[in-house]
Amino acid sequence: MATELSPSNNPHDSDELHFLSDPKFERHGEILLLVFVLLFSVFLLVVAVLMYVKRVRAQIKQNEGSKLEA
């Protein structure tokens, strides 16, 4: 019974996918991670710029309104 539970006799080992047969697998993973980090950084930058532009436009409209009242 102990031999049946042994990991060396596991019949499912041959069913697993072996991604490490690709010699550039690690390099492709690093490049993909870099691309995701850069895309996320660009997304955050765009959100920050849009918030800044919205705030500046609101201040300009507020200043124009106060000039008309004076």
Concise structural overview:
Keywords: Membrane, Transmembrane, Transmembrane helix. The chain has 70 residues and is an all-alpha fold.
Question: Which properties best describe this structure?
Answer:
single chain, 70 residues, mainly alpha, 1 helix, Transmembrane protein, transmembrane
Account of the protein in words:
This protein has 70 residues and is an all-alpha fold. The chain has a domain at 46-70. It is 64% helix and 0% strand. It contains one helix and no strands. The protein has one helix at 25-69. The longest helix has 45 residues, at 25-69. The chain is rod-shaped, with a radius of gyration of 29 Å.
| Anisotropy-based shape | rod-shaped
Helix count?
Answer: 1
> Major beta sheet, specifics?
none
Mean pLDDT rating: 83
- Helix and strand pattern: H
- Into which percentage range does the β-strand content fall? under 5%
Sequence stretches where pLDDT stays below 50 over 5 or more residues:
none
Tally of strands:
0
Structural class: mainly alpha
Distance between the termini: 94 Å
Q: What percent of the residues sit in helical stretches (DSSP H or I)?
A: 55-70%
Computed CA radius of gyration, to the nearest angstrom: 29 Å
